[in-house]
Structure formats: C-alpha cells, structure tokens
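Schema walk-through. Below, the input block comes first and the output block second. Nothing else is stored per chain. Lengths vary across the set, and this one has 264 residues.
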Amino acid sequence: MRIRLFACALLMLAAAMPAASQDMRRYLDLSSPDMTSSEMTRDEVAGLAAKATPGGPADFTAKRLSGLDLSGLDLSGAVFRAARLNKTNLSAAKLDGVILDQAWMLNADLKGASLKHAHLFAAQMWDAKLDGADLSDTRIAADLTGASLVGAKLTGANLAADMKNQSMGLIRAVLKSARLDGADLSNADLSRADLQFASLLKTNLTGTSLRGADLSGADLSGANISGADFAGADVASARLAAPVGLDAARNLDKAVNLDRLRRE
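--- output ---
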C-alpha cells in the first residue's frame, strides 16, 4: 500500500508541476530506497518482456527499477508509466514504442538506445545520457535538464509544448543546459521548447520548428539552420556563429531579442 501511494504521489507531482519540475527536489527524498532501488532483477524484466504480445505489452507501471543493468534488452512496446529508472543502464536497449509517461529517469544511461516512436510525457530525465540514441518520431515533453544527447537522432520528433493540457501548466520539452552537439533534429518540432543555455554545436536543424522556443544563451555555432523557423524564438545572448544555411532560415527577423543575438 505504501509503495502504491508513493507511486501515485510521484505521478501527481510530475503531472501537476511540469513547468517547475526542478522544485520536485524539495518534495521528494531522491536518495530514498523508493527512488534508488529495484524490486525486480534483470532476468525478471527480460522474462516479462519476452512474454509480451502486440496486444499485451510488458507492463512495468510504477515499478521500482532504479540501478538495474538492462543494457541491450529488447523492451519494445513496454509500459513504464510512473516507473522509477534512476541510474538504470538502458544503453543499446531497444525501446521502440515504449510508454515512459511520468517516469523517473534521473541519470539514466540510454546511450545508443533505440526509442523510435516512444512516448515521454512529463518524464523526469535530469542529467540522462542519450548520446547516439535514436528518438526519431518520438513524443518528448520531458525534463531533460543537463542531459547529454550528443549525436542523437531526433528526426521528426515532437518536442513542442502540449497546448491541450494548459490547466496542468505548460508541458514541453525542457533542455536547459543540455548538450545536443552534432544531433540530428531535422524536421523536428521544438515549438515553445526550453533550450536555455543548451549546446547545439553543428546540430542539424534543417526544417526544424523553433517557433516560440527559448534559445536564450544557447550556442548554435556551426548548426545547419536551413529551413528552420525562428518566429517568436527568444535568442537573447544566443550564439549563431558560422551557421550553415543562414540564407534559407525562416523568420529569423521575427525572433525575439534579435538585437542581442551574438553572431561572432
């Protein structure tokens, strides 16, 4: 009963406080067993995943799986809603189509993992490692503050604000101080995403929507911005040195604080 109540509390916090998720640290003991331990073994997780069917995916809802080594496993289509996966090793795992809504993945290792068509809504992924991961066509409205997505693939991904749930606050992708150097964000939707102080060195932003995004303090040096839409984007103190496709960028003249954009 205590675990069930704790899981409900986590879900309510994640859903009710998306715009200020960093404040959750004040309400939760992130060093408690509920956030750091696992109630299953790797073999048990793999066994449950092996029994999954298209109509009956493996269900890990609200499970404590923190610290486990799940690297390389095929967990496609699994449901991890409100699960705790803090510091879990999911490197090179196959996570296509998984549901990670309201999941806790602090410092999780997802390097080289495949998360195509996955759903990450109100997930907490501070300092997660997603270098080289494939998040093509994934829905991401998660807090990735301080995360590393160097060389990650996010083509066609939807990181835009969820305009249907405004009563819950502005739920969007938060990538404050995240590293996206060399990542492929072509044709992705980052409308109203929070990219404050993010590193986007040589990132592929071809055809990407940055409408209303917060790019203040971000570094886009060497990024390919051909066809990228900057309408309403806040570029205060952002750096745009030696960009590729500058002449083909859209609505850069309609960006906010354009006079404070650094072009050196």
